[in-house]
Amino acid sequence: MTVPERQTANLEYLDLDPARPSPRERVLAGLKRPRKEISPEFFYDRRGSELFRRITELPEYYPTRTERSIFALHGSEMARWAGRDSVLIEPGAGDCTKVEALLDHLGPRAYVPLDVSGDFLLARARELAGDFPALPVTAVCADFDQIESLAQYLPPGRRLFFYPGSTLGNLTPDEALIFLRKLRGIMGADGGLLLGLDRHKDPAILEAAYNDPGGVTAAFNLNALRHLNRILPADFDPEAFRHRAFYNRERYRIEMHLESLRDQTVDCAGTTVHFARGETLHTENSCKYTPEGTRALLEKAGLQLRKSWYDERELFGVHYCTP
Predict the structure, then answer these.
(1) Fewest CB within a 10 Å sphere: which of 108, 114, 227, 310?
(2) For the segment 123-143, what is each residue's pLDDT rounded down to a tens digit?
């Protein structure tokens, strides 16, 4: 256990030392696949994080503000279903901002944000602990693969998982099922899950959300190449690629790609990677769920859907589930 200096009295920091392949290994593994791909994690350097903040404020991009409106309208009812005084656990907590809308409603006995980016997690957890001095915060640096070992580090109490933002949609259905089963495994018989999921809807609405006319999403997608150039290093030319985002109707998902505008060769940390003109680098999936698909996925994971909340247009849903 690593305890940082200058921590607030109500903050504990645990570093589980997530053993991950290096960025170079992860990138090269994706580039060697028949359909080249990289993880969405490479969107998020400082500039990428700022661009994503701008995306969430665009009129076309509804998920973030829509989920917030659901929390604002139904937070009290969510607390009645999910209960107060739980140990509130947020995998992939990031900047810990989504949970703030529910903390007063849920009144948890402890909050456990989990993220693989330890320095960023610690900085944000320290801010949140300062804003909520009566709330014990245990920040855990860990990978999702380590989540099953998390139980031994949790404070005592009923476990309520919080997984907002349709982050589950970035996983394939098979990956999502594996992840939910892991949560179910450490949830306990009396535990629960508050899950935010984007809904399947008119493809025109979905495609507009990922192709804003101002080009902010395009800049966000292309910035991943600049990030790779810096950390590998590599010599991607962002001007030799273009942003593409479309709704795959068969798989119920938005796909984001970077399309090569010409035949080109890229040096990635000493490895030569060829792109043909028109070939794409797959950068992200965002799966969308029907009500029937949501229920079926949860049931396969050993979870029962107890209550759902939607916005007025039923674009987005927040679901409460129990074992």
Answers:
(1) 310
(2) 999 999 999 999 999 999 988
